[in-house]
Amino acid sequence: MLNKIHKDIFNDIDLHKIAHTKFIIDLKRLNPKLFKEPMNEIYNNLQIYGVDLTNAEINTILNYIDKDIDNDNRNLPTIIKQFKNFKELLSQRFNEAHSELCAPKDPRLKKWRERQIRRVKAHLGNEGKGLIHFTVSFELTSGCSVGCPFCAISSKKLDNVFDYSERNVALWKGVLNKCLEIIGGSAKYGVCYYGTEPFDNPNYEKFCSIYADILGHFPQTTSAVPMRDVNRTRTMLTLSREKNNFFFMNRFSILSNTIRDRVFNEFTPEELLFVGLLNRFDLQEEPKLIKAGRARSTQNQELISQNEGGTVSCLSGFLVNMAERTIRHITPCNANEKWPTGQWEIDRESFTDADDFGDAIQRLIDKNISDEAPRTKPLKFYPWLSYEELTEKTNGFGLRSKASGLMTFKNMTALSEIGEKITEGCHTPRQIAAILNEQYGYNPAYVYNTIDFLFNHGVIDEEPQN
User: Does a structural domain hold residue 447?
Assistant: First the structure.
């Protein structure tokens, strides 16, 4: 079932019991009515589903299922403690991907990505902390056949597929090798669907297998039609386990009661161990969907969070559509009227072959990415940040975000003066350096460095104006 690396990571965990524990937890979350029956009926139903646990173990799981075991340091039953350890290991690997493994090798691109991560965390708070910020991801179709009414990306109708021809396979291999050359090993952690339905491409698994052969990782998959072809879905899950040297949870978007029931009837607990089941049909007990993309106008507003904005975008880098031969340079943002899908589009390019693709990526980096604040553009803090003077006697200031609270910048010469000038919103770095040199004698080079320090903390506005 698992490859050697999976077994090494979960060496001290009984994954058989964990798979069946997770199955019960998912089933109760998505079909709570089943668990309102007498206990004997619950035991019988779980046995029909193939759950291989004793009645005592089932009782233990059901007793703890609604408790906050993540912050419970008391003595937990063994099966609950192992499930908690399993979740912690998944979270640890996720955090490693977020902080290190997805970082590109190009120093400018790496610093730009880090800046976007800081910006998004400051703007969105806890919601922003869960975004991975891949550096590159792919789409193997143009558009999507499913048309979910809550689609945060507002994908258009399916109109083109990147077919598995000899020419396209050569192009795919060339593009992936260029990504390895320019972006580095972090390219392996992207996805091959983004705003599309992966199974719309009849050769999705073949392209992903090539991806794994070249980049070393079978990409994570999220599908809204896992039951369209059960055998195909099962094959994809098997390939994902066999070809991963790292893992993210694959995910099924559950769009109806019928799909829910078929998933639990067709797949074993072991097959669903590394599959997240997303409730997309009954959100009375679940978090509301983000108000982005098509969800901003859907008629089913009871399913949608009424908080403005949010994002599902998980890419700070390049979105490559192989069917269209396009590259979009994007990064997450709070969804709003200007950016309804919750992502900035900074620039875009097209390409014809692998070499042209590499040149296009390089142009996007050279044109749009810098670790220095533009010297001739007036600076301002993001409008969602409020400037605050610090009460303590120190050189600095604070910036407060509604979502993440107060960030302080202090104990650096000229910080207060620089912060005040940026707050005025009409001075370029060159003007600020000249003013502070004339008034206080500050070295312009030092002023530039301090401005760049703030810029790379993701607090100086660089929202695209196109």
Answer: yes
